[in-house]
Amino acid sequence: MMNRWAIAAAATGATVVGTLAAPAQAITLGEIWAGDGTFMSEHFTYSNFTCSLGTSSLDTQLLVPNSCDEIKINDNSTAFDLEIQGPFSATNLGSSGVAFLDALIGFDVMAKNGNPITNIELAFNGAFEGLARASVTETAFDMNGDIIGQLKVTNSGAGTDLEDPALEAGDFDLLYPVGKVRIVKDILLQAGPGSSAEISLIGQNYIKDVPEPGTMGGLLVLGSLGLGFMFKRNRQFSGFTSFFPSDNDNN
User: Which of 20, 60, 168, 224 could form a disulfide with 94 if both were Cys (CB 3.0 to 4.6 A apart)?
Assistant: First the structure.
């Protein structure tokens, strides 16, 4: 997942999730779909955006967003090639059940200069209060639909999954370089009784075969800005394992 040096830098911050303001250049998925369905940044072209929302149905829940149209995409960042901005949140005000929000977002990525994409960096600022969890599971596909990379980052009372011991150069290497990659993000927030989970920003870098200055090291920049990515706002909870058993799966 993340480089060890990047994690150490990011961990120095303690910024509350809600203070991360959306830059002016952000555009909503609704606005992208109302256009030609394509979003172009300085180095990459993004297309074929898809999105679906799955939710619980508790009377005591507060879930955001209410529609995929509200989700923001931003490329005007000093830290990442692309940012997906929320807020994404699930709050359970009741005394039972699990409130959840599951956003599935997909899109194609292609480098403008034609260089193949070899590696992907991922970061998020998931936070929780009480018996809750925030996670992002990301799957990369080639244009034939074959999986060429997968990663999960999570923050919960069961632990914070920050790095993959098998990788050091970036979050995950693709099985082979591709000129275009299909990205599918499963953004999941779960909240037990009296608990809440939130993500306001998911950042991503796409490493090309010939990296350009400023593309790599976005995670270090985030740490120096004190944005506190991947911080935990809560203590360990005994019994968390049985409540969210899938949290024991380390990807």
Answer: 60
Alpha-carbon distances, residue 92 vs 52, 58, 80, 163 (angstroms):
21, 8, 32, 29
Question: Token digits for 86?
Answer: 């929320």
Tell me, what's the pLDDT at 80? 84
> What distance in Å separates the CA atoms of residue 108 and residue 144, rounded to the nearest whole number?
12
Q: Which amino acid is at 202?
A: I
Query: pTM for this structure?
Result: 0.75
**Torsion angle (degrees, nearest 10) of CA 198, 49, 163, 154:** 30
CA distance 80 to 75: 7
18: phi then psi, degrees, rounded to nearest 5 = -65, -10
Under a CB-based contact definition with an 8 Å cutoff, are residues 55 and 63 in contact? yes
Q: Where are the alpha helices (DSSP H) in 2-72?
A: 4-10, 29-34
pLDDT of residue 58: 94
